Structure formats: C-alpha cells, structure tokens
C-alpha cells in the first residue's frame, strides 16, 4: 500500500481512500477519519469531495452507535453482543500478495480460539425456502405467534423489535382497521417513519421499507438482486441524511466483481434485473431521486459484486431429534434410540464488507459463524504475526478432493486456489477417492489420476481433461508414516522422474482395473445408502448392507471417504434397529477414517463424536460418554469459544446427560 503512494496523485488519493474505508469496515474509526481527511485534501473534483464528505459523515455517525466491542448497539437480541464487556482490538490488517491479491494478515501473534472479527451485514435477505419458518430480520426460527409486517403479508418476524428494525417505526392515528396481527391500524394515517418522500430521521436503516407496498418485487426477484436493492436503498438514504440532492448511484464497495468472466447471457439477464430494480427504487422514492448516466452500469456491477462476495448465513439444525428433543419429551438419554446429528442450513444471504476481505484457504485458520445477523470470525490455530488470516469459502481438505475444490472455486469465485493444501501433496487428496492395493500387506493408494514426479521434486497431477495441477513434494523428514506408506514410490529415489499411472499403486506399483472398481464401488455404495430411506430397519436390510460394506472394503482404500460414509450410514441403521453395541463399532470406524482425512481437532470430528456420545449414553456407559463428550467439547470451544452453547443448543443438554461439570479446554 505504501509503495503505491509514489506513483501518481490519483494513486495517492485512492490509496488513502481505500485505507480509510478498510479501517472503517474494521471499526477502527479514528484512523479511518484521518485517512479519509487526507484523501479529501487530495481529491480535486467536487463530486469526489462530496462523496468523501458523505462517507466521513456516515463513519462519524456509526462511531457514535458503536460500543466498546465494535458491535452496533441495535439489531441484536438478548445479549447478542459477542464479547460484551471485553475491549475491541483490531488484530488483522489488509495486505496485498502477488498470488492472492488483497487479503488479511495478523498484526500480532494470535492464539487459538481468539475472536478476531465481528461485523453486522451491510445488507441481508432471507432465502426463499425459509420465508415461512424463520424471522426475516434475525433469521432465527419463528415462534407460533409471529409478528407480520403491518403493510404487507410477505415478511414475518419473531418479535416486535425485529419488525421495527426491518420495517421502521409505525405510527397509527384515526380511521383504524384490523391488521394482520389483530391490532387496530389506520388505513389513511398509517405511515412509516422516514417515508419515501422525506429525508430519514433515524440512523437505523429499515431494510424492508422500500420494498413494502404495491407489487412486492422483493418476493419474486432473485436474492442477489434483492440484496443489491437493499444496498442501493441504504446508499440513497445516506445521501438523504446529508441533506443534499442525490441521484441513483452505486456505493463504492471496492469489491471484486469478475464481470468479464460471465457469459453474455448472464450479463444481459443482470442488465434486465438492474433496469427493473431501478424502476422499483424510483417508484418508492418518487421524485426525490434522479437517474445518472452510469446508474445502470453501476447497479449491474453491484449485482456481480454480490454474486462473488455474498456470504451464506447458516444455522445449525437437528436432523434426527437427538438428545435435545429427547430431554424435552421427558425421556432419559439412555432410553433414546437416535443419533445426535446436526447439519448446517443456509437460511439467508448477506454482504459483509470487511468480511469479504478475508481470503480463502482449503485448510483455513479461521472459523466463521453467526450470532443473529452478525458475522463472527474466530481463530482455530495459532497464527504467527504477519501470516495470512484465511477462512473457507466452502471447499475444504477432507471434504472435497483437490479437483472438486478447484472446480467449485473456479465456478463460483473465478480463481484457482493456491493455498498450501492446493500447492503441496497431502494425505487427504491422495486417499479420499482412492482404491486399495491388491496386495494385502500394502497400504498404497490407487488413484484414477496420473501422478508424474519431476527431478525437481514437484508432482504434476491430472485433474481431468487437459487440466493439471503442480504440487510441491513435502520434505520427507516431515512426512508422516501414513503418507509415506500410501505413496512410497513418490518419496523414494529423489531427483528421478517418475510416472504413477492411474490404476497403479503409489507404493508398490501393483495394478487394478480402475473402471471396473469404480462401477462395483458405486453399486455397493448405493445399496448401503438405501438404509437412509427407512425409518425402521430390519435385520435383513442390515445384513445386505454389511455384505456390501465387506465388498467395499476390498475395493476402497482404508482411508477413503466412501468407507467413512458407509460406516456412518450402517451405524445409524444399527441405532434404528436398537443394536447400540454394533452401532458403536461402526461409528468409531467412521471417526478413525475422518481423522485421517481432516485432522483430530477438526469440527467435523467433534460432530461425529457427539453421535458416539449419544450411542454410549444409550448403552449406559456414562463414563465413556463423558470422556468422549469432553473431547468433542474441547474442539467445539476452539471453533465457537464462549458462544458454543448458543450455537449448538444440544451441548448443554448432553453435558447434563453425561453428568460432566467440565466446560472443556478453551
């Protein structure tokens, strides 16, 4: 950043402006104001000066509304402030690297489980499939007595507070009428604070206000477009707060958009949506807003920025009842016959300006989760000063193979990942989709890909078609025994070129017919997966599944993902059948494989351990259950810290069930 200051006055202005906006997004307001004032002194155009002045006014207003932990005083329910009472500290800064471009790095050494970032969204919107079940503001599950929007029937809210924050403060006078919620409201005098033709008097942006009344366009337009509308409305009302005339123009988010990578059809579709959105906004704000020549192009780019940078807000949802529901029904955990299993559910989509600055890694050192609408980032390992601070955009080592990760990131974010796990050979990618060696005493993996090792100790891997990935070979002294046994040929005879063709064992070079193995494996996997279709499972079905598992073990590598999933499915079937002893055996086998694919302290392992806890409780083995739970709890505390029981509601219930007073190792 400092080097760019010597290039030109324009670059100097942009550098100071961007530094100020990044610091503002990280709640470092005093420094942000200083940098923007420097940018203001360098800006020559009147329009540019006006834009910076508006940003300065907004930052000063936000500074007044921010408490000491950097979280806004509004918009949170019941102690939603993530670390209330603890001082906020900025411990990451924006950097630029040759490979990944702009990203975030640590200023100081950061300990594991440290809270490093809390941010409310610039804009957020509920996913269409959750409109009937979740609050449209905080995105929590709604109670039976929901609160409606007073002016339309589309949004529902869990409380009056969420309604007011989303819609605005409603005033009622005479000529009353019974509304959706049964309250008397006025048809003629009904108004929303900060109406469409008056400057807003509230510092809180009511995100649903401009969508309400008439044709409810937000109910039919795609989520990306609705988000763009909410960001544009916020930008418009910022100008209204300044008391100056304003026109429709996109806010300067300074986020990537990858417009050039999209097809002509996608570009045309976005232009059509942008025109519709502009008309909707102009209809709401009426004569108060004007069109600019570049209004349409700015909005199109904003839509593409949202496509690349939006983040899914997720909630943890129980998929089978588990101990949480068991306790509510008054049944002891030992009598339950359900695995305690949860899954992440995408309930909303949001834009977090500073959260978007964090780069991706397939083996991240930061975990993202959500408290109400707030994005919370917490470290999962020690991060040395100056090191990248990176989260996962979705694909992770252990979850997806290298080829799948690269494809997913390219299709969704338009980049090829060069993180450490995608640049160096690792055990997970070698084994997760591999087959076993036909030699019974060999742990070598057999892949569908071809591996070519050069004399320079690099490995080129075919990822399908003409796509290749160049991986560095780890230092042999740092390679674990498992990896050495799995790919012995790749680590021996350094300085020699070597081909390991598909179908060949990476250790002893034995050969199998991969196409036949793939077909047989998929057939046996599908037979095992059929167990998921039945609520009640008889012994005949399980016997057939065990036969398929036996065949699968002859084909698949002992550390393969297919085996882990098969063991897990059979464990669940034994739970349904009431055979907890055999369920335990298969659950433990699945965990052992997953520890190879991920690592022993990965959050996936904790969720699997919780399944094992529920089985041990059903067996009455309270001591083993308590020890297993303590291990899971220590992992969860690494990822969620003091918010663990707020994110995972069943943890408190299980703790009481196992009789553990321990809170785990934080």
From TrEMBL:
Coiled coil: none
InterPro entries: SET_dom, SET_dom_sf, TPR-like_helical_dom_sf
UniProt-listed PROSITE patterns: SET
Domain SET stretches: 87-394
Superkingdom of this protein's organism: Eukaryota
Gene3D superfamilies, sorted: SET domain, Tetratricopeptide repeat domain
Protein name: SET domain-containing protein
